[in-house]
Structure formats: C-alpha cells, structure tokens
Amino acid sequence: MTKKFKLKAALLSIGLVTTLVSPVQGAEFDTKKPRAPKLNSTSIAQNEAIDSQLKVLSQQGAIDNDLKGISGQVNVIVHYDEPSVGLERGLKQTKSKKWSKLSDEKVKEKIAKQQQKANSKMQNKGIKYKKNHSYQTVINAEAMTVDAKDIEKIAQIEDVALVEKDDVIQIDPSEMQASKQQDVAKDTMGDELNLKLIPSITHLKVDKVWELGNKGKGVKVGVIDTGIDYNHPDLKDVYKGGRNYVGGGDYNTKRNADDPYETKPEERPGHLPEVNESGSEYYTTHGTHVAGTIAAQGKNEFGMYGIAPNVDLYAYRVLGAYGRGSTSWIVGGIEDAVKDDMDVINLSLGNSSPEENQANSMAVNNAMLLGVTANVATGNSGPERSTIGGPATSPLGIGVGNTTLPEERIDVDLKLGEETKNYKLMAYEFGNNPETTLKDQYELVNIPGLGKKEDFAQVNVKDKVALVERGEIAFVEKIKNAKDAGAKAVIVYNSETGSNSPGLADIFVGASFDYIPTVDMDRTQGLALKAKLEKEKVMIDFTKFNVTTTPGDDVNDSSSRGPSLPNFDIKPDVSAPGTNILSTIPSFAVGDNYSKAYAQYTGTSMATPHISGVSALLKELHPEWTPFDIKSALSNTAKHLDKSKFDVFSQGAGLVQPLEAATATSLFKVAHETEVNGVKQTHTRGTIAFGNQVPTSKAQVITKTIDVQKLSSDDNYAIEVETTRPSKSGATVTTDVQSIQSGKVTVNLNIPAGTPVQGDEIQGYIHFKGNRSYALPFAANLSEVKKKGFEKFALTNYHMSPNGDGNNDASSVHMKVYNKQNLTLLKYYDLLNEKSGPAGDGYVGSIDLFSGLDGEKEVVLDGKLYNIEGSNRVEGKLADGVYAVDAITTSDNGNATADDYPLFVKTKPAEIKSLALNNGKLSFKLDDLYINAKETLASYDINYNVSEFLKASYELSNNKTGEVVISDGGEGTIDINDKGEYHLTLNVEDVAGNKASFKYTVNTNTNEVSEGHKDIKDNTGTPVDEAKTLTDSEVNQFVNGKQKVLTVEGDKAVTFTKSQLAKLSQMKKNKSIVLNTSLHAVSLNSANMNELSKYGDVTIQIKKVDSTYQNAVQVLVKAGDSEVKSLVRPYALYIKGNRGLNVYNADANQRVASKYDKKLGQYGIQVTQFNTFGLK
C-alpha cells in the first residue's frame, strides 16, 4: 500500500497496493502512427507493446514532467533509444524470425556500447553523475543520481530517448483492513462451535488442480516485494534464492546483494523512529504474506497452504524500511527475474498513473514478451470507477482485482441484567473459540477517553469486559490495548460521527493473535450502559454464540475499478480472493514465535498472488503455453459474479476458476485496438473493449475479432450475446456467426444514427456454449467523453498577510472544472508539519465545501478555516506558516484531486535576532518565516533565495542610505565606514507586505550599538554638506554631445557655477541633469537651469528627512546664504516605494498627483516647490 506526499500530483511513484496509491503523471510522447500488422492475435498483443515502446525510443530526449522546475541532486532513469533485449526479441518474433541466446548477447553488446558512449558524452559535457543501476533486458536504461541543472543537457544527448524521475514512495501502515459485515447465507448453529478455516484452496477448487499435476513443481516464481522471511517453516523448503536492491543509510548494517530478507527491527539505526511520521513501522511483512499465498507448505495448525506449494520460490527485495522503494529498484527486480528465468513474477505494487510508457509498465510488457507471466495488483482506490492504476493498466500484464471469500461470522446473545440482546462480533482471537473463553459472568468497565493505551492505564480491566467508544484510533488498536491490559472481551459502541451512527458500525475486523472477542454495539445502547456504570456495577453474560457463513464472491469495495481512461478499456483482467487472507508473516512481528507468524491482510496485493499461484499451476500442466495463453485461459474461464451488483469494470472477466482454466479445451483471444497519445495500437486480451464510440448522424458498425483456438476438443460452440447493460440509444452487439468450432468470430457493435445520450454505454458477455462453456465480457461508451476533475487550479498569490492592514490580506485560488461537479472540498495542508491538524495528518482545516461547481470559480483565502468537531463546525484562523491548498472533487465521471503551493501565510514582519558592530561594519541576523521554512520546503523541491522575499534597507543620520542583501541564513551587513556616532534606521519588508523599522544609535569609534535614536555629538568625519562640483569641460561635453542625461550619483550637495547654469540652460529640451541617490532622484531640464542661473552659483542637495511619511525627502537649493523656495517651471522628483501608496507634500499634508513605474519601483511627480515630500 502506498502513501505519497498529498500535493505533488506529478510524481512517478510505486508502492504496495494494499490501499490507495499516489497520483502520478507520466511524460508526454510523440504520436508516430504504428504499422497495422496482419498477424495472429498473440503477435498482435506483442506488437502493441513493442510499438508503444518504439514511440518512446524514437523521440529525442523527452523529459518527465516531474523533473521540470526542480533543483539539487535528483534520481533519474535515463532511457536510451536502442531496443532492450525483450523489445528486440519481440520485434524479431513479430516477423517470424528465430531467436537464440546468441541473439541475446548481440543485443546486450550493442546496448552496452550505447550506454558507454552516452556516459562518455555526459563526461565531455561536464555532467557529473553517479550510476546506480544499468538495465539491458527489460528496458535499455540506466538509473543515475544527477544535478537537476544537467537534466536538459542529458536529454540533448543523441542516444537519450527519455529522462524519467526515479521516485521514492512508502507503503501504508494499515495493511490489515476492516470489512463491512456481509449478508449471511446460512446458519450453522449448534451446541458447540466449529470455527474452521474456509481457505481459497477449497473455494477455488485448487485441490482439484493439484490432482492433475504436482502442485506447480519445477515452476520458478519470483516475488518482487519487500523481501521474505525465508526461515519461515512454511517457506524455507521452497525458497531457492533471491536478490536485494535496497540501499542507503537507513540500516545498521549493509545487506548483501543476495539477501532478500524482510527489513528487521534490529536493523533500525538510533536516529530513525520505530514508526515514522506517516505511521509506517520500520520493519516490513508484506512480501512474506504474498509469498505464503503462493507457496506456503501447510506446516501450521490452521490448514493454510499456498496455491502452488511445490514451486521454486525466489524473492526480489525492492522495498525496504518503512516500505520505501524506488522505480529503479523495482525495474531492477523485474530485469533480474527475467535473467533468472522466472516463469511467473508477482508484483503486488503499483501506482495511480494510467500512463503505459513508464519504466515499470515497459518492464512488465517486455517481461511478458520474454516469456515471463507478470501478474500485477490493480490498486485499492475503489469502489469508484476509473480508479485502476499502472502498471496494471499496461496491455500485456495481467491486472488483478480483489474479491471476498465465504467467511464465518459470530454473533452472541448478551445478557445485561434482565435484558438479552443479540450482537455481532467484529473481532476475536485467532484459533480460540470465544464460547470456550467467555463462560463466566464478567464485570463491565467503562474506559475513559477512546481506548488509547493511557486510557486503559486509568482503570483495572483484568478479567473484565471493557466498554469503549469508537473514534480517533483504529479498532485494532483499541482491541490490542484492551488485551494488553488483561481484558477478557471488548464492547465497542459507535461514535456520534461514525458510519451508520447511531446504529452499529457494521465492521468486521477479523481474527488475529492480537485480538480478544469484540462486540459491535450501537451508540444508543453504548451510551445507556455508560450512564448506568456511573451509578452502579454492571455484570454481563455471554449466553449463546452462533456461527453463520457469508456467501463471499463479492468484489471488495476497496478494489480499484475500470474503465481505464481515456480509452474505456475493461480492467481488471481477472479477479481473485484478496479479503481477510490468512498467510505467513515474519516471526519478528509476533515475538519470534513461528507458531503465531500468520496474519490476515486485505487488498489487491493479496489477490494477485492467488493469480500468480494459479499461473504456476497452469505453466506446470501446460509448459508450452505462453504468458498470453495463460492470460486468455484465466479470463475465458472466469466465473461471473453477481452482474446486478458488479459490472465488467468491477470484476473484469470475473473470479478466477483454476480447474476450468487448467482443463480448457479452447482459448478465445480478442484483437483489441487502443488509442494512446493519438496513435492506434492493437493487442490481445480476453475481453472485448469497444472504447469510446459516439453516435453520429450516420449509423455505424464497429467490429472486433475473436480468435477461437482449439486445444483438445471438437466442441461446436453455440454463440450467445448477453447484454447486461442495454444502450439508451438503441445500440446492440451481434456476431457474424451463431456457432463455431475454431477460427474467427466477428463481433459487431451496431450504433444507430442519432445524437449522444449522456451516460450511455453498453455492457455484456459473448458466451460460447458447448460441452464446456466460455465467455468474454464486452463494453462500449456511447456518450461524449468527459474529462475528469480540474482543468485549472492555481493560487493567485503565493504570499498573504491576513492581519487587517489592507496589504495582501488575502489570496485566492482560481479553479476551472471540465464539467459539473457534485461536491468540491478545499483544505489547508501544513507543509512544515505533516503531523499537524486535528487528525495529525497535516490538514489543519477546511476552507470551503460547495456543491454544483460548474465552469470557473475563484475562492478567496483570507486565513479563515473550520474543522468539524463532533457535530459542530468550529471556526478557526490559519496560523503563520507555509501551506498547500488541496482540493478533491466528485462527479458522476469520477473523483479528482488538485493542489497548488506553497502559500506563505505571514502576519508579522521579521525580527532582529542579533546585532554586532565591528570596524565600521554592522552585522545582523533576522528571525523570519522565509528563513526558518527554507530547509523544510527544500524537501518538497521548493527552492528560493531569501533575498527574493525579504528586503532590507538602512538610513544613517549622515544621509547615507542603502539596501542590504539578506542571505538564506538571514544575515546582513551594513558598511558604515565613517568614524563617529550616528543614528541608524534599519528597515525590513517582506513580499507579503509586512514592514518593520528598527532604530539604533551606533558608534564606530567604540563599536557600541544601542537601541533607539539617542542624543549624539558632532562627528569629526566629513561634513554632510560638503559639495561636489562639476568641471566646465564635463558640462560643455554634455551640452554639445549626444548624451541625453547627465547623472550625478550620491547624496552629497552639488554646486553649479553661474556660467555652468547658463550653459546648461542652452541644452536641448530632451536632455536633463539628474541628481540620484538610492531612494530619490531629481531631474532638472533646461528651463529649470535657466531660472536658477539668475541666482548666481547654486548648490543643490537631496536630503533624507525623518518623518511619519515613508522615504521622506527634501530638495535644498541654496544661492549663497539665501535659499531658493520654488521655481516657475516644474522639475521632476522621484521617490522609491512599494506600489499602492500615495505621494504627499509633507509640509502641507497634501496629496500630490503621481505616476508609479512598476519596473523601477518608484513614484514620479512634477512640482515647483522645494518642499519635503514622502509616501503614505
């Protein structure tokens, strides 16, 4: 099961599919049209996989979208354009050419030369890389660690076809899943309970297949997973070896390359937690459970056998501590499994991307081409449609869905005083009959809180029954805490907000060694018992236990559904039991006691090894069968589950029937055409997917061909078409013949002329009935294809300061959906603390929930949020921090998510952390969100320079001003240099609009710094009113030359002689004299100079003024001892400042008309007075 950071939708991720997997987006590919070969159906399947890969290899240096815009060291998979061994073999076979081991070696030699050549080109370009793995068999690629800035260079190398991100993921901690109570089919009541295991073996009649052969003997099966406990009594005799791909610094000792043992608790180094921030335990058990379903030897007291217990079992450890793994490790496992001549591989892992052209899917396709049957879990994101993920969506691999087994359920009559009521058990101890362990009368004890470990510590429950409310922690944790505290049994009553409340939770957790008998009670009765316990002692009797059996054969709600989009393909291919599956786990998970090293897990991860075991049995019985023959046999013979509840996108071809597949007399293969990236491709399957066929003004007939291949019988099959979901527009499915022994059957989808009807589709089955009967499901979408979810989703401002000052008080998120939605929810996710929020999952609160979103909408983000506590909506305020805005939306077309980030929420300006003066240099350090968040955000590939978001400037009383560049660590330096004592004002402003000014008195003679502007003595340094002078030659050259502006830099006074002013009055009208400082500038034209020339010699100074106005300035003009107050003709004055302010005449407190230059960040005014002006 996988868990991935919730926000980055474009992450190519792989994980165990025992629950939801993370969304990904693959690279875009060109649309080269494929050749349309006229070959048999198996060759057509191979051609599809080959062609889709050739399209990738024929492109020049495509870059995975996930790699765009990131920085730092990154793990990548570099694909080269020479075909891999598997692809090259497929190319030869489609042309009916022979293949040999010598052919293998020739291709490997060619690939090795290409990879070496590409490596040399990288070195010549100055690209530094660390090579982690090289592949030749299932893909031609290398896994590398490179600097992100070099990815473009790598993509430009002639031999490179694709640069793909090699992501790390993490399995979900909750592998054992609670199931809904199922309807009971029959009662088996009696005086004594007989709790027996109803395993997949008997339910699927696997034991009948065993009678035909030798339980898979000689067939090599590879489990590509977290490794296995190869010392387990149920596995050690069939374990033949394995490989380890997991590396890094998360382990105390380095693991050998040939040691695929599960990650053990003692391998954990001290700096890593037992349980990480996502709730995953350090050690792993998943692969051992999968392996047991395939090959367990029955050396246990529970009657638990694997499907094919005589296989040769191999393990490929591609996921390590906390269940983390990478794409490159998984591809390495597939590559070596093919090299090791595996007949079958099991991949109980996957992602949520429908993209076929990613490393994992290509590796699975090529493994199939190389003769290895690859079974892949589809995921656990059901029950909604189109939730299936890759690589199970690949055309060649066998995608597996999850169904339920018949299971025994227990209910009990509880006597509480004079009243007796019947309740269901949601859990009990594995191997212990509750009727024999609960014979006496027991005291009932209310547990304070919600059944956490510390709650049980407050009361004595030894040999008593605990009453616990549902909520906050998992049922299994409450039950285990009760058992650890010595309780004999538990009653869990529903919470106010729990599902089905105030009724029963209706949950079945299962049996485990960690459990004790647990009663599922409604809230009303639970609260009544709690109230009674406050008044008196309550005793409870378990008077009668009853065992009932559920029918099974339901598709588990969590099993991912098809169709795969956008082509409306039928997936999964086949289904198998995957709910509450008992299998092996490592001994360290149960105190090193192998007699208890068994557990029940739920997920498509558990269904997939059933198909792998059956595949092994078929391979033993039919060694000549190819992986495509096995795939067809599984689909053709599957049992159709309740069609009124589960359509073809829920169950695929149906529930696997091993005996029927093993004894199939014919195979039925469908040549299917799929459009991927605008290119039509063909392949083989055991299902008939017509795809998207929209009615037009003319009638249409869409055809598919079934190739009936006779194996052992001369049966004449009667062909019948069963439509389970009729078309609203009158479309039908027919065949060109009504009976056949072998050969081709044309299946027609007949679409009448007309307009599309929303939601119109057709589903059903083509039945071949004879002495043995077979069937193939079909489906077509007859309505306009609707895209799912968000077309646009983006923040309008990534910085906001909701403090009510009118400056950046809000941001907003702009969204646009493809079509009308049902419900849309927006939430804030804390990027700085994944455990924050009421549920400890990083979500701090909801922004809004609205229905009927259609088209575009903009939602204001003003810092307000809410959470649901009990039945109350509790309003709150977003704390300063960095967040992502997450969205999920539901529609009839499926669910979709979107996000944008980072949203910096900052209501306070930076603060001075430290300050020091030394040798004329003032050093300071700031404390600020932009500084403190930088390191954490880098882990999300969010990188920035602090100086982009945080600006600082200073003003000294000697009129010296300047800007200070803030380092990423928050440090800044001011060069004062001049000796003496000065007033210093340090201004800090951030991009969110927060400002602060810090005033100090500094003495460069003594290196003293004190807060505030204190009285200071006259300095002995250079007088501030010392004037600069221009030479006559400078003035003449400017007036007579082509230069349009003569700029005098600095904040000292400038003196112009009368003759210079007279000369400047003759300059052209497009010329000007500019006196410029860091914050202000004055521009004087020829008319201004003409007026000033009447005063004789003139000195002009731009003087910074302390004022309530921002960046206040006064222009002083002196002629001898007199001061010039104004001119007749206006001059230009410029003041730097942030947008959104106004310029004021500070002396008159009057607003002055101004223009703002966004590029220069300054205001310009035209005035005649030499007054004080500032911003407000």
TrEMBL record:
Residues 249-277, 381-401, 551-570 are annotated as: Disordered. This is S8 family serine peptidase. InterPro entries: PA_dom_sf, PA_domain, Peptidase_S8/S53_dom, Peptidase_S8/S53_dom_sf, Peptidase_S8_Asp-AS, Peptidase_S8_His-AS, Peptidase_S8_Ser-AS, Peptidase_S8_subtilisin-like. Residues 216-654 form the Peptidase S8/S53 domain. Coiled coil: none annotated. Pfam families: Inhibitor_I9 (PF05922), PA (PF02225), Peptidase_S8 (PF00082). Residues 104-171 form the Inhibitor I9 domain. Residues 252-271 have a biased composition (Basic and acidic residues). Residues 442-529 form the PA domain. The active site is at 225 (charge relay system), 286 (charge relay system), 605 (charge relay system). Residues 1-26 form the signal peptide. GO terms for molecular function: serine-type endopeptidase activity. Belongs to the peptidase S8 family. One of its GO terms (biological process) is proteolysis. Keywords: Cell wall, Hydrolase, Protease, Secreted, Serine protease, Signal. Residues 551-562 have a biased composition (Polar residues).
